[in-house]
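Obj: model holo form, ligand = 6-O-phosphono-beta-D-tagatofuranose.
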Amino acid sequence: MPHSNLSHSTLPGGLDVITLSNQHGQISISPFGAHLLSYKNAKGIERLWVSERAITDGSAAIRGGVPVCWPWFGPHPTDSHAPQHGWARTMQWSLVSHRDLPTGSELVFIPASETKAPLRSALAVKLIVTLSQQLTITLRTTNLDSEPAFLNAALHTYFAVSDVKNVKLVGLQGQYSDKLCQGQLFETPEVYQINSETDRVHHCYCGNVTLIDGEQQINIGSSGHDSIVVWNPWQAKSQEMKDMTDDGYLTMICVETALTGDVKLAGGASHTLEQTIS
Ligand code: TA6
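Output (holo structure tokens):
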């Protein structure tokens, strides 16, 4: 049985970080947002990107890693005062389980008891992170009410790349909504490269996307999703964002396993959204 150990540290802004190490690598997660900040594989290669200017005092979502967007994605459908991408990524979570399994190690987070669920409190949520030969991030939602509820979500993963201009994505297909063109539909390009601001919701159940970054290849698996979101703010947006350096866009790309089609969750039903990285 593999053995893992946990260590604790603090970010510059004061947020706690839990680090798990085993023979497959190392992950670091802040209970603030149950936010994965680092995933180093068995070769010690860091797969996630975090902004040098990330805000780490709990006053805003951490820029980078894997923000948990839940129980909605983007702006709230009706409440303009509600936070972008839901409240999961800016609420406190608690680590409730650490297990070593035959194939790897598992951490389970649930919203901290003191977390007020201002919206959609009928929905219970847990985040399970498993470090084996791959990293598996599982977001499980349960509708505790007898009435149906609608759910959108995303595992908004920021991948670290050497130079986004040299990155290729393989495995996306079908149409995407371009958020920079009022959601107009376009066909996914055969050769998928990033050379300007990119904000696309791919309406595909693509289960495997490969991110090619020079010699590096990252395999991104998805399940329980109805879309894959690809985002890079490019230069102008990076310069506007206070938690990004001006050239921060060059070494990151978001490939997000997402639910953006208003999934209707029957009373008592559960839904699992999962991304794997290897
Ligand atoms: O996933 C793409 C996106 O919805 C973009 O539209 C952009 O807003 C990005 O998320 C980052 O959002 P954030 O609220 O973290 O700044």
